[in-house]
């Protein structure tokens, strides 16, 4: 056990802030390397936006950030990232040249790699490998959006969805090794939010669609839910290892 602690010291257990102050406080300053954070929520609750926001904060603090976005696509993720830099959504979506140049200037000095989602190489395995290659000595982060839509290289056509999500959750939990931080999104089961009475809903920590492995594999799990008749999204930390 003492040697295990020595190795942890050699890996540098520095915390890397997500940019969300209450969450970082609960995480003793942020996420350490070798850990995974899963964001579970119903559709249109802000999962991707929150993941991209965290990615922005990590890259601005010097980490390489890779992204795989089989759910919304890397174009939409790029628009979200541009908005965080204060650029206008309509201009980003139109591919306005001046806006793109301003975006490039904002990203100067950052290391960020959003994979082409239509490529055969667009797998979780490839994303994790690329992160390790592009940041060979430092901590790096990867965004996987989502555990239901992502795939592994070993996945067989027509694979059972539950087994697929289970494998994806485990792969992201292992990450790219001890230098890797993985932030992944997951769709929530309808039973966690559709019932009118809260007592009839599945508990948020068990809300991940298709597999309980989502709950077990994560080091940190967040559950997002919209507050009725408002623009507020409530974020609950349902697991904090």
Q: Would you mind describing this structure in some detail?
A:
The protein has 241 residues and is an alpha/beta fold. Strand 6, helix 8 (161-174) and strand 7 (180-187) form a beta-alpha-beta unit. The protein is globular and about 50 Å long. The chain is built from nine helices and nine strands. The longest helix has 14 residues, at 47-60.
Mean pLDDT: 89
Cα-based radius of gyration, to the nearest Å: 18 Å
What would you call the quaternary organization?
single chain
The low-confidence parts are: none
Strand content: 15-25%
- N-C termini distance: 19 Å
Helical coverage, percent range: 25-40%
Class computed from helices, strands and strand pairing:
alpha/beta
Number of strand elements: 9
Brief synopsis:
With 241 residues, the protein is α/β, with parallel strands linked by helices.
Write out key terms for the chains shown.
241 residues; 9 helices; globular; two-stranded antiparallel sheet
Please write out the topology.
Blueprint: H1 2-11, E1 15-16, H2 21-26, E2 31-32, E3 36-41, H3 47-60, E4 64-68, H4 74-84, H5 89-94, H6 97-106, E5 112-114, H7 124-134, E6 140-144, H8 161-174, E7 180-187, H9 213-217, E8 220-226, E9 233-240
Parallel strand pairs: 3-7, 3-8, 4-5, 4-6, 6-7
Antiparallel strand pairs: 1-2, 8-9
Helix pairs in contact: 3-4
């Amino acid at each position: 056990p003492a040697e295990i602690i020595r190795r942890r010291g050699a890996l540098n257990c520095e915390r890397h802030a997500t940019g969300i102050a209450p969450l970082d406080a609960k995480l003793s300053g942020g996420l350490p390397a070798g850990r995974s954070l899963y964001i579970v929520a119903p559709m249109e609750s802000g999962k991707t936006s929150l993941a991209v926001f965290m990615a922005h904060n990590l890259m601005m603090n010097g980490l390489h950030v890779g992204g795989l976005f089989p759910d919304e696509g890397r174009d939409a993720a790029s628009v979200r990232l541009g908005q965080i830099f204060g650029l206008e959504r309509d201009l980003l979506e139109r591919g306005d040249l001046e806006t793109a140049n301003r975006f490039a200037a904002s990203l100067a000095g950052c290391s960020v790699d959003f994979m082409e989602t239509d490529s055969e190489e667009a797998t979780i395995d490839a994303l994790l490998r690329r992160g390790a290659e592009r940041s060979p000595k430092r901590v790096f982060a990867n965004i996987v959006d989502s555990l239901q839509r992502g795939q592994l290289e070993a996945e067989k056509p027509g694979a059972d969805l539950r087994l697929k999500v289970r494998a994806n959750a485990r792969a992201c939990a292992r990450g790219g090794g001890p230098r890797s931080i993985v932030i992944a999104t997951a769709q929530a089961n309808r039973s966690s939010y559709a019932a009118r009475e809260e007592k009839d809903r599945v508990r948020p920590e068990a809300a991940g669609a298709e597999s309980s492995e989502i709950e077990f594999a994560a080091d940190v799990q967040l559950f997002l839910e919209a507050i009725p008749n408002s623009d507020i999204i409530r974020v609950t930390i349902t697991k904090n290892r």
